[in-house]
Amino acid sequence: MSKADPGTKSLSIKALLFPWCGGTVGAICTCPLEVIKTRLQSSKLAFRAVYYPQVQLGTISGAGVVRPTSVSPGLVQVLKSILEKEGPRSLFRGLGPNLVGVAPSRAVYFACYSKAKELLNNVFVPNSNVVHVCAAGSAAFVTNSLMNPIWMVKTRMQLERRVRGSKQRNTLQCVRYIYRTEGVRGFYRGLSASYAGISETIICFAIYEHLKKHMNNIRLSPSAAGGREQNTTNFFGLMAAAAISKGCASCIAYPHEVIRTRLREEGTKYKTFVQTARLVAREEGYLAFYRGLFAQLMRQIPNTAIVLSTYELIVYLLEDRLK
């Protein structure tokens, strides 16, 4: 019986450690943006009144009248509000559940994606768009189903507003509260919107794989003369492909994020996916479906670029080592 190659073991450990470390650092650095994004998506966002002067025509004096309108605060306004009213610590609400979920969610996703891709290559044309779309969709379905309770707790903590000097519920207390008030079903609120969000994953991977095919020498080449420079070029090319694909997918499928946040709010009028979509459109207009998009793009594009390119690098190293 042959002994396992120590080098292969080392690469396997790195394959688990690198995504976890990258995901952890990314979650910590981008947590404030995620909190702001969630607050912007919430129905409890405090709109500010803006008064525009308007000339009243047909009057002798030509006196102006004031026309009030409601304006949604932007990213900077929400950031200032959190810092002034709740303190800097509130920018890291929900970080605990995020750190707990980041490693298993990515491990489950990439494991399912690789396995589905392997199986589907035997059914359809290998590495075709159909294979990529189906593999990404099935991996997202499994991951969302398993991880929804963790993301539900994270969202609920991010929506909780803190008064300076007061204590907020920690992760365990939030879990107990949800279970006590809503039962086990409470942990699966917003799951229908997460399933709708599978379209974002499918779009992202379809564009990403398409860009990979059309990039010259995109696959990391074995070390040779000038190999290091070529590898560096390839790595940054993968990052660019991932960033473009995630940016396009986020812009197209973003409304499901707003609907999911509304469904996860505590004690609200939002009950189902379709009912929430209709209610938001009727009461706030279609632009409400894109509240927080800028914060989402700032948070997700760098994260996705790093994660996907690192994943490709690890796959290449493992394959090259096992040859």
Short description:
This protein has 323 residues and is mainly α. It has helices at 6-41, 75-85, 95-120, 129-159, 171-182, 191-196, 198-214, 227-253, 255-264, 273-284, 293-322, and strands at residues 48-55, 64-71.
Please state the average pLDDT score: 80
Query: Can you list the strand order of the major beta sheet?
Result: 1-2
Order of helix and strand elements from N to C terminus: HEEHHHHHHHHHH
User: How much beta, percentage-wise?
Assistant: under 5%
CATH topology: Mitochondrial carrier fold
Superfamily at the CATH H level? Mitochondrial carrier domain
Shape: globular
What's the CATH architecture?
Alpha/alpha barrel
Give me the Rg, rounded: 23 Å
Instruction: Work out the helicity level.
Output: 55-70%
Return residue spans where pLDDT drops below 50 for at least 5 consecutive residues: 55-60, 220-225
CATH class category: Mainly Alpha
Number of domains: 1
Major sheet details: 2 strands, antiparallel
Overall number of strands: 2
Helical segment count: 11
Structure description:
Helix 1 (6-41) packs across helix 3 (95-120), helix 3 packs antiparallel against helix 4 (129-159) and helix 9 (255-264) crosses helix 10. Mean pLDDT is 80; it is low at 55-60 and 220-225. The chain has 323 residues and is mostly helical. The protein has a single domain, classed as Mitochondrial carrier domain (Mitochondrial carrier fold, Alpha/alpha barrel), CATH 1.50.40.10. A hairpin with an 8-residue loop joins strand 1 and strand 2 (64-71). 67% of the residues lie in helices and 5% in strands. The chain is globular.
